[in-house]
Amino acid sequence: MSQTQYLRFLEKEIQKINKKIDFKIVRGEEYFKEARDHKLLLRKVRYHTRRSLGGRLLNLFFRTDILRKNIYA
């Protein structure tokens, strides 16, 4: 399974859990287990989509909106 397929799978699972949580909220039921599962899936998505420190710094220094912005105006 490629990383993009895995991320799609995680997104689908997150959507399923969101629907379960919404139904339980409407019915006034507890949803601790679903909230825990949701949190773990989000952590997996963030882990597989995060960039390295160097990539984040390059993005920070070479963003076009920062270069065009006049901080002295």
Low-confidence stretches: none
Shape: elongated
Total of helices: 4
Q: What distance separates the N and C termini?
A: 51 Å
* Mean pLDDT level: 85
Roughly how much helix do the residues carry, as a percent range? Answer: over 70%
Number of domains: 1
Radius of gyration: 19 Å
Characterize the main sheet.
none
In terms of topology, how is this protein built?
Layout: H1 3-27, H2 32-49, H3 53-61, H4 64-68
Helix pairs in contact: 1-2
Give a nutshell description of this structure.
With 73 residues, the chain is an all-alpha fold. 78% of the residues lie in helices and 0% in strands.
Q: What can you tell me about this protein's structure?
A:
Helix 1 (3-27) runs antiparallel to helix 2 (32-49). The relative contact order is 0.11. The model has no long low-confidence stretch (mean pLDDT 85). The chain contains 4 helices and no strands. It has helices at 3-27, 32-49, 53-61, 64-68. The termini are far apart. The chain is elongated, with a radius of gyration of 19 Å. The chain is 78% helix and 0% strand. The chain has one domain (3-68). The chain has 73 residues and is an all-alpha fold.
Please name the defining characteristics of this protein:
single chain; mainly alpha; 73 residues; 0% strand
